[in-house]
Structures are given as structure tokens and as C-alpha cells.
Amino acid sequence: MPIPSPFHSRTSKLCTSLRWKDWAGYHAVCSYRTCHEPEYFAFRHAAGLIDVTPLFKYEVYGPDAAALLARITVRDITKLGVGRVTYLCWCDDDGKVVDDGTVSRLEEDYFRVTAAEPSLSWFERMARGYQVTIEDSTQRWGALALQGPNSRDILKQVSDADMDGLGFFRVVRAQLDGVEAFISRTGYTGDLGYEIWVDTSAGSPGSAGSGTAAERVYDALTEAGRNFGLLPAGLDAMDVTRIEAGFIMNGVDYFSAHHCLTEMRKSSPYELGLGWTVKLDRGPFVGQAALAREKRAGSARLFVGLDVAWTDLERVFAGYGLPPEISSAAWRDGRPVYDRDGRWIGQATSGAWSPVLKKNLALAQLEASFATPGERVEIELTAEYRRHRVTATVVKPPFFNPPRKRA
Amino acid sequence: MNPAQRSGRYDAVVIGGGHNGLVCAAYLAKAGRKVLVLERRHVLGGAAVTEELHPGFHFSVCSYVVSLFRPSIIRDLDLAKHGMEIIPLETAFAPRIDDCGLCRWSDPGRTRHEISRFSARDAEIYPEFSLTMTKMAQLVRNIIDSPAPDPTSWNPAELFRLLRLGKELQRGGAESVGMNLKLLTMSAVDFLDRWFESEVLKAVMSVSGIIGTFLGVRSPGTAYVLLHHYMGEIDGAFRSWGYSKGGTGGISLACARAAESFGAEIRTGAGVERVRIKNGRATGIVLANGDEIEAKTVISSCDPRLTFFGLVGRDHLDGDFVEQIERYKLRGSSGKVNLAVDRLPRFHGREGTDFLRGDIAIAPSIDYLERAYDQAKYGEFSERPYLNVVIPSIMDPSVAPPGQHVISMFVQYAPYDIKEGPENWPSKRQAFGDTVVDTLAEYCPGLKESILYRQVLTPWDLEQEFGLSEGNIFQGELSLEQLLFQRPAAGWARYRTPIKNLWMCGSGTHPGGGLMGAPGQLAALSMLGSRQT
Questions:
Q1: Cβ atoms within 10 A of the Cβ of B160, count?
Q2: What is the ipTM of this complex?
Q3: Calpha distance B96→B101 (Å, rounded)
Q4: Does residue B173 belong to the interface with chain A, where contact is any CB pair within 8 Å?
Q5: What are phi and psi of A260, to 5 degrees?
Q6: Which burial class, exposed, middle or buried, applies to B292 when counting CB atoms under 10 A from its CB (0-12, 13-18, 19+)?
Q7: Which of A228-237, A322-331, B519-528 has the least mean pLDDT?
Q8: Number of domains, chain A
Q9: Are residues A49 and A143 located together in one domain of the fold?
């Protein structure tokens, strides 16, 4: 049975829709109201606050911490500066992705890793011989993502840290309403946004105010957001934004190599569009040889974005006398992709209608020869219980990439 | 592009930097044409404009909600990248003086609960009504996305288009044809009477039939306009009524940035005096400062009267055509009052701001609305007008300082032709503003004390400041006799004019007004298709 997050006392009052689901063993809100769209628009036009506590978190510290992380992930973590965050993946010996997440360097010898899946045993297996301690801190850190164009203005009201000075993918220690926390300029929406990490084991700070540390941070953000259009947001809204941002999801767009019964199901970083995170030319790391081979030979499949032609979609539905029926929620039931002669060339793994772009988007893995932007392919569409194929154009993600994200 | 073009001669000059002019310019520039846009005012946007009239308060001065802006334009011109941000409205609230009124939500279940407080029967019929209207709107939507068919032409393409229109009408069978005839001929109230029994619901729904027309909710022909409300349901935009972030001007600016990204040139503070015409052909324009600009094509986004009687001149036109434009009905019937307030208005029996995340209609009963029209018929503004109120700062805090708000009120009726004569509107402006504030204050006590700034726009102001003849916000009424192949004149519904190389692209052309961008888009595509530019 899922357990409540440290923010549950607050989120459960706000979630009038009672729409919850299990996320990694926690209760997580799908949408606070019956309809998730206002929450989506809050992310894009104002700010949304989402509880991301269920993310798996690991504290890695000790003199060999950097060396260990450089060994087990595809990035050369020794080069990561203190106060910086990086996004990466880690692979098995065959160069197939096990999971993806972020690594923050909080101190010279102190890192925090986030992951989609439990990873402690995998990290520990690799850590033999290293002077390093790995702590599963998933329950210790309550995590909130504050995302959207107004997120910085909201944080300025409640945090003592220099928010203007906090660059993209940086992390800083801060006090929020007197509560110690980390603020990182990261997120899963592809917009200006922050994640706030509160230590729930520290107990309630004695000073004024009431509630636990987590509750106080939640209340402070909610209060500060009142004049900035802040809405509590759930997973349904975030799912649409992450597709617009072209972010993949473990268990949806790919499967951890640890869980795959067949080789076909596994993916390499190159096949997932994560080639840019792989630094081959350095000391040994897990999967290095296989990745080097794939880099030389070229990948069989590649990760792309698809822009599904609206006019085609309209035409298919018009054939049944219907207006186009598109769900406002993201989908994640894979759909086959074909070339123009009807030959299967890959799969779209998730997609969504983008209200901002007015486009129907999908994330896909295709045979490498079809992965060039501008290429026309066909994707399956079901209308009136019947299967159709409609045109889609290959696009390099992200689909939506506002300048404010980095500014 | 040949060297002569690069050296200064434009392929196209667009008169007016409103959203339609800019959309048109962007499409032409995207197709490689050398385009210049000229705007008389110091800001772009025309009636889709944002101005900071009081420090920190950004007003969507005229047009205040985005209704049917075409998704295809957003895609074609990549407007999201150029800063187009539309925040959909979530509610439609009809307050009443004696109780908490009726709020319709984007959640159908919640709406059903609200309506059933007035009539359980209406609550059940409401979705049925929406379904029927959606069916009808499908037909209309196809009309919006293509130029009007020409019923006088034997050109097979035109005949095919007419045939398709007929087929669409017929498709739903006898029932659908009947429904269409009713919609085309009935009054909004008669039409709604066939469905609903509760006064509060009928009243607030009927106003969709009169917005921007000089008709009352009991006038025949107003049922048709109701349809426009349902088009958003089917155009793939999902909740297509919305605010533009930062104010309505944001839409125009996004269009302008898109046009510039394709190479178009845009000038503000450049009023056009007239179109230069030689042997029945437009050859360029003359600016108010006397400068002349040569162009292969001139495109006017102004309304038909301003275009033909102001910029062209009657002398260049046939008597028949002049007659048609004379008869074209503008007769503005609305005004605008914008407020800056230091706190949110409070409504009877409602807490929080959830119910204010959309529009607020002051339309308590059908008699109230009809009475408002009665006064307008005899040349007075309504003592208790219909108001469409929005508080965009709730969902878009960027338009007002923290904790403070902008209130935008669309006011009907305010007839252009008041009995003292339209030129006497300025002396009645403040009295008109007082009436509007008094009206809203009946529903939100304390409103008056919260006002920091007030802007009042009468139909006369809309004409003088924004170039909308007779203050008509749609550049001509959206009544049946001047829609489709009759807009703005029979035989001239395809963006061309009797003057060669002079085109139109404003709301006075098919498919009409309402911040759609469709006239600008369709005009540009027609021009590009004609291979004349």
C-alpha cells in the first residue's frame, strides 16, 4: 500500500478530485481538480507546485565519491563543479541504459543522485573498493518541484538565497521560512523551474510557525505564490510538459536493462537521444567498451520527436463525420510507426496534444535511416475503433524550449 | 527576388498593424514577398492591443479575450516560439443580486450541479444542447477555414465548394436541416426556449447571440450567432476562449515577431492618408506626412468603409459598389470600461477566486437584456447594460502589481448613433462610465472604493482612436446578410476589391471578426494563390 509523502497533510486537502495513483510506493496526485489542464497552463504561464518526493534519492559521500560516480555513470563526474547539477544515465556492461537521473555536487566529496528506480544495490555492487558511503535518502528528502515562468519570483519571496544568481542546473543551500533546504534549478517541465529538497529527518525547527519542516516549506511557497498564479499541480499536467520538453521516462519510453527479458527491449544512451551525456574518452566506466563500439558502428535505432499532421488527423475523423477526437491527457500506450510504404520502422512510446504549440506530439524510436529531421513517416491512429495511418514529421526534440528556461 | 525589389519597391504594403494585418504580412513574407506593414498608432495591435495606462496595470484596451484564433496559424507561423501564450478560461459566471448566481465550469459534473439548483431538467438537457450545437458548429467551422464560395461563378472549383457546403448542411438529415433553418432565422431567446426553462441559464446563454450586433436577444437572426460559441469545441484547440498572457496585444506582437522573422518590415506612427491609384490600379500609398511608398500590391486591414471611402475615395468606384458599401451595416453597439483596482471584487455567496477564472456576465434575465436594448433603439445607452467582465490578473498576475487587479468590461448597449449625435459622445463619456460601474457595483459591493483608475471607451472613441467606423468591434455586424459571400459586398468576398492590386484582409472580410486571424490568413493565401503578388 502506498505511503503518504511528507506533504500529504497539505496535498490531500487540496486534491478535491481524489485522483491519486501509486508512484514508487507513494500516494501521488494525478490532478488536483477533475481536469488537469489548468495545472498544465499554470506550469506554462504562471507556476505549478508538484510533490516529487517519490523520486529515488541517494547521498554519495567520501573521498572516492566523484571517482565512483564517474565509474558507474556515462559522465565524467570528476569534472562537475561544486554547486552544479548534471543530467545523465547509467548503463550495464553491454552499454544498455539502467536508469537516468541527476547528480548534484553539493560539496567536494558529497553528491546527491536522483533515480527513477531503486538503485542502491546496483550502486553498492559497483562501490566495492571505493572509500565511499552510499545512503538511500529517498525518505529523508521531501522534494517539491516549483515550475513555470513565475517560479523565480515566488522563491524570491521566501528564500534567502540569491535566486537571480542561481543559474540553470545549479544547486544552492537556502533557508525557506527558516527551514534549511536545497534549491536546485532543475525540473521535468522544460521551463524555468526549481526543485526544493527539504530534510524531513531534522524535525521541526523550533521557531515561529507550526507544522513540520516540509509542511512549513509547502505553506510558505503556497502563500508566496498567491499573487503569482501558483496552482498545485499533479502528474497528468507534468506528463504533458515533459513530452513538450522531449524528456524520456523510464518504464515508458524505455525499460531499464535490469528488467528486460529480451535484448530488443533494451536501449543504449544513443538510441534514447542521450548520446550527448556520454563521455567516452576518459578512464574506464561501466559500459564503455560497448558504447565505444556502438558509437563507431552507428546505432540501429535513434530517438526522435514526431509532429503528427493535424490535417491528416482531421481528415480521418471527418471520414466518420466526427470532429477530431484528441485526449487532453498524455498517452503512453506505444504505437507503431511505419515508413510510407507501410513497413514497420519503430515505435512511438508516448505522446500528447500540446495546447501551447497546437500540435500533436510523440516521442519515438525509429530505424536510424528515418531519424533525420524533416523525414516523413506514418504513425498508427485509432479512430472509431479502426486503425489508420497518418503522416508525422520527424523533429529534433525539444518541441518547446522557451528562452526563460536558461535565462 | 530581383534587384529592383531589393532596392525599395515592396511587393506588398499592408495598411494597419492589427492582428489580421500582421498575420497577412507574416504569411506573405514567409512566402518570400517583400512586405511593409504601416500602423498609424504608436503601438501595434489595432484593437488587439495592450497598453500600460496606469503604472503597473496592463490593459487589454479593446479586445480582451481570444476566441477563435486559428490553430493552423499558430502552427504555420510558429507563434508559440514568437511569444504567443494563451491561457484558457475555465469558468463562465453569471452573478445575481439576491443569490450566488450560476457558474458553469470546465468540469461538466460541476456544471450539472450548478444548473440543477435552478432546474434539474435543464441540467440534464445542457450536454444534449452542447452536442447539437457542436454538430451544427462543425459546418460553420469548415466555412471559417476556407474562403467563402462564390455563388455566382460557374467555375467548377466554386461549384464544388458550394456543393460541399450544401452536402454538409444535408448530412445530418432532415432534423439537421431543420435545426439549421431554425438557427438561421430564429431569435436567440426563441431558440433557447425550445430547450431550457430556467431564466438565469437562458439569459446568460442568449447574450452570445447579440455580442457586437445592434440586435436584442429577442430579435430574429440572433440564434445563429450562438453557434460561434461552440466552435471552440471542435477546432482542436480545446477550450479555445482564453486570455493572451500579458494582454491581448501579446497576440499581435507574436504575429509581428513572426512577420519580422520572415523578413517583413513594420513601422508604427505611420498613418496612411490614401491609396495611390492610377488607371484603376493601386500603385502604392501616400502617408499622412506626404511620403509616398510604391508597392505592387496594397492590402487594407481597415474596415470596408474606411478602406473605400477613406483610403480609396468614392470617385474611383462604381456607383453600385459605393451603394453596397454604404449599406454595409457597421452601427457599433458597445463600449469598453477598464478598471485598475486595489483588491478583488467580492460576489454574493461565493468565496475564493475559482469562479472568477473565466468571464462574468451581467445578464440576470431576458427582460433585463431586452430592456437594455430598448433604450439603445431610441438612441440612449442602456441604464443597466449587459456586461461581460473579465479579471485577467487572477490567472495572469503579470498584468497588475501583486495583489491588485485589472477589470475589463465589455458593455452593451452603447449605440454609436446616440440621439444627440455621435460627436456628442465625449460629453457623455463619464456618465456612461458611471452607469457601468454602478451596474457592476450592484453585484459587488465595495467595488467603487477599490478603483484606482478608470478608462472609458465609447463607440465614438473606438472610431476616433482605433479607426473602427461607427465603433463596430467586428468591422461590420456579424449578421447573416453580411456574412460569407456577402462580406463585405456581394461579388467582393474574396479579399479582392474593384481596384486592381488593392486587397482587403480585415475583419470586414470573410469569415469576420473575433480575433481569429482567419481573414488575414485567408487573404494572404488567396493572394499567393492568385500569383499576382
A1: 11
A2: 0.89
A3: 5
A4: no
A5: -90, 130
A6: exposed
A7: A322-331
A8: 3
A9: yes
- One DSSP character per residue, B191-240 reads HHHTT---HHHHHHHHGGGTTTSS--TTSBTHHHHHGGGGGGGGTTSSS-
Q: What is the CATH number of the domain that holds B308?
A: 3.50.50.60
Residue with cell 518547446: A400
Same domain assignment for residues B191 and B115: yes
Angle at A371 between CA A369 and CA A374, to 5 degrees: 115
* Residue of chain A whose Cα is closest to the Cα of B343: A227
CA dist list (Å): B216 to B187, B199, B285, B416, B460:
9, 16, 40, 16, 21
Contacts of A227 in chain B (CB under 8 A): 397, 402-403
Point out the domain boundary residue: B467, B482, B517: B467
B395 CB near a chain A CB, below 8 Å? yes
Q: Which domain holds residue B264?
A: 3-87+244-329+470-530
d(CA A265, CA A347): 12
Is A227 in contact with B403 (Cβ distance < 8 A)? Answer: yes
Decide if A262 is inside a domain: no
- Does A247 reside within a domain? no
Q: How many domains is chain B built from?
A: 3
- DSSP for residue B277: E
Q: Which of A310, A323, A353 sits opposite B75 (nearest CB)?
A: A310
Strands A376-383, B502-504: parallel, antiparallel or unpaired by DSSP? unpaired
State whether A323 and B233 contact (CB < 8 Å): yes
DSSP per-residue codes, A106-162: EETTEEEEEESS--HHHHHHHTTTSS-EEEE-TTTEEEEEEESTTHHHHHHHHB-S-
- Shared domain for B97 and B211, answered yes or no, is yes
B457 plus B364 within the same structural domain: yes
A144/A64 same-domain check: no
Please name the amino acid found at residue A13: K
Cell of B14: 499592408
> Residue A278 belongs to a domain with what CATH number?
3.30.70.1400
| A34 lies in some domain | yes
C-alpha cell at position B387: 456586461
pLDDT in tens, A343-367: 999 999 999 999 999 999 999 999 9
What local confidence, expressed as pLDDT, does residue B391 receive?
Answer: 97
Clarify whether residues A313 and A378 are in a common domain: yes
Residues 463 through 522 of chain B touching chain A, CB cutoff 8 Å: none
Cβ under 8 Å to A: B residues 412-471: none
For the stretch B3-7, contacts whose Cβ atoms lie closer than 8 Å and that sit 24 or more positions apart, written own/partner, are B5/B34, B6/B34
Residues from chain B contacting residue A33 (CB–CB below 8 Å)? 107
Find the chain A residues whose C-beta atoms sit closer than 8 A to any C-beta of B: 33-35, 37-38, 41, 44-46, 150, 227-229, 310, 314, 321, 323-324, 326, 328, 353, 355-359, 400
pLDDT in tens, B338-359: 999 999 999 988 999 999 999 9
Residues A100 and A182 in one domain: no
**How far apart are the CA of B123 and the nearest CA of chain A, in angstroms?**
19
Taking an 8 Å cut-off on Cβ atoms, the answer to whether B85 and A44 are in contact is yes
Range of the domain at A64: 57-137+268-297
What is the 3-state secondary structure of B385-412? CEEEEECHHHCCHHHCCCCCEEEEEEEE
Contacts of B246 in chain A (CB under 8 A): none
- Look at residue A102 and tell me whether its pLDDT is greater than 70: yes
Unique residue bearing C-alpha cell 537521444: A273
Mutate to test the interface with B, among A314, A358, A381, A391 (most CBs of B within 10 A): A358
- Residue B359 and residue B448 in one domain: yes
| pLDDT (tens digit per residue) in B207-263 | 988 988 899 999 998 887 777 666 655 444 445 688 999 999 999 999 999 999 999
Which positions of chain B have pLDDT values less than 70? Answer: 1-8, 140, 151-153, 159, 162, 165-177, 228-240, 531-533
The alpha carbon of residue B460 is apart from the nearest alpha carbon of chain A, in Å, by 35
Cell numbers linked to A338: 511505419
